[in-house]
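During the reporting period the student researcher (J.K.) took over the structure-prediction task from the postdoctoral fellow and processed the backlog of single-chain submissions. One of the processed entries is reproduced below for the supervisory committee.
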Amino acid sequence: MAWEVKGDLIKTHWAAEVDPENVLPEYPTPQFERREWKNLNGLWEYAIVAKEQRDVTEFEGEILVPFGVEAPLSGVHRVLTEKDRLWYRRTLEIPEAWEGKRIILHFGAIDWDSEIYVNGVSVCRHLGGYTPISVDITDALSGLVNELKVSVYDPTDNGWQDRGKQSLTTHGFWYQPTSGIWQTVWMEPVSTTYLQSFKMVPDIDNGNIAFRADISNKSINTSITFEVFDNDNIVATATSKLDEFNIVLNDMHLWSPEDPFLYDVKITISENDVPVDKVKSYIGMRKFSMEKDKNGTPRLFLNNKPYFMNGLLDQGFWPDGIYTQPCDEALVYDIQSMKDLGFNMLRKHIKTECARWYYHCDKIGMLVWQDMVSGGKEVGMYYAGVKANIQTHLGMKNRFKDTTQKAYNVLSRKEKEWRDQHETESFEMMDALYNVTSLCCWVPFNEAWGQFDAARIAKAVKKYDPSRLVDHASGWYDQYEGDMRSTHIYILPLKIHQPDNRAYVISEFGGYSLKTENHTWCPKSAFGYRMFKTREQLTTKLEKLYLGQLLPLIEKGLSAVVYTEVSDVENEVNGLLTYDRAMVKPISDRVKAFNHRIAHEYERIGILDQPLEEATEE
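J.K. obtained the following structure tokens:
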């Protein structure tokens, strides 16, 4: 049977444009780009068998990679259970021009427990649904035509593993699962000595870039050349035989949402001065910090100046691809449409994205708060958190113990394994996203969703990456660590609770909702925090929320807000966009106008030493 988009619920208009012969063709990692590569997206064979079955010889059909097996765009649209195992197979053809090279196989992400086989040889076993996989398959190859198989087990919410908001049973704010390959698959040839990974840290105070490389088969004759370009003009260069060194950059052009300037970067690995590997990248020079403004109020800073982060919750779900966007244009649309409305930040909620999403945030100028992905089995802690949150709004005691912080030696074996694996995956995620220019804040825990040892983990995250902010426990169970005093307020009025020596942020609020005819995923089960009947009503209430309640709090120390949310998600209709991205629900010009008022409030109350450029009366 030929591939087709399955399902009878709403879809984006991009779904009809998906070509199974040319799926997500763009280079998947724009900050680590080689000239030669081969995209392996497209139609693969698949089979769903009992989880105990360790090999498959007969396959039942074709699946469109990289869409999860549950997604309509996969062409399968079936939900895996904890009793199932998913198998993939395809032919792996190596170009003749690559003969004599090492071949690296990449998967952007596979959810959850995966094993990769080349010609029947296991080349990699990987746990974790949100981090990339790269493996040298050269020694398992047999000529130019080979067999590639992938085995995947994913119990979703019947397991302990990190899974975010995925659920086998869709209800409320628990959404459809994504199992198997859900990001681009590709391969590329490299020399024996090649660049495996690198980290760049912009230092605007000292005018340099700190660079650290991991090179395979490095010898005493291996050197690294790092070149920085402003368009085609080289502005800085350094060559070293060390793994770590600094590149001096004079007359820096700083990156910001208002001016998202990026330098191009070229990294060359040489042996005896002969180039053996070349990688293209880019970097933005910026600094994120929490400091006190000239009035002594703790605030979030960008490039050594107070900066109000006005953002939205971004869950990253699609009605046709679930976890996976139908095309690159769809990624750009979400980011650019929010930028056009006057927002400058997105909080990526309990999910990671493909590298190209972060690339577009860098290019467009959209700050990113990145949630770690939650898991565990402590659902009861979520409801305890709901009660605690209600108490907060009623003005009751706001010091809640992290009640999941049990002694490690009394935990069950599965809980110990999950906690250890959760930390492993969280730091792997940080490694994968470390060079993203726009990523300004790590969020280790959302509310009570699997929260444990939040203070310890916050310190570990900050030590591992001191260049970014940390919101250690977004919303509930504050352990008084990190850079932010972070609250969620869905019950009005908005107010500031117990300010301390951290910047105060409202990291979730709003949730104003509107069902839209022919653009709601399931009208009968649609819900929202506060429902309105027309675009006019929704827009008027948003104006009152932002200008009547949020605006006065800026002078009192409010440094950032995260509105719920970018788009509707399945039954949840809190989005500024419909789930199919066909409609902006509030009246755009009025949203943009109140966001400009919010930005200009910093000038009015004299937080900045210099007035904001282009500040105008609204």
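The committee noted the following: The domain at 34-190 is CATH 2.60.120.260 (Jelly Rolls).
J.K. will present the remaining backlog at the next meeting.
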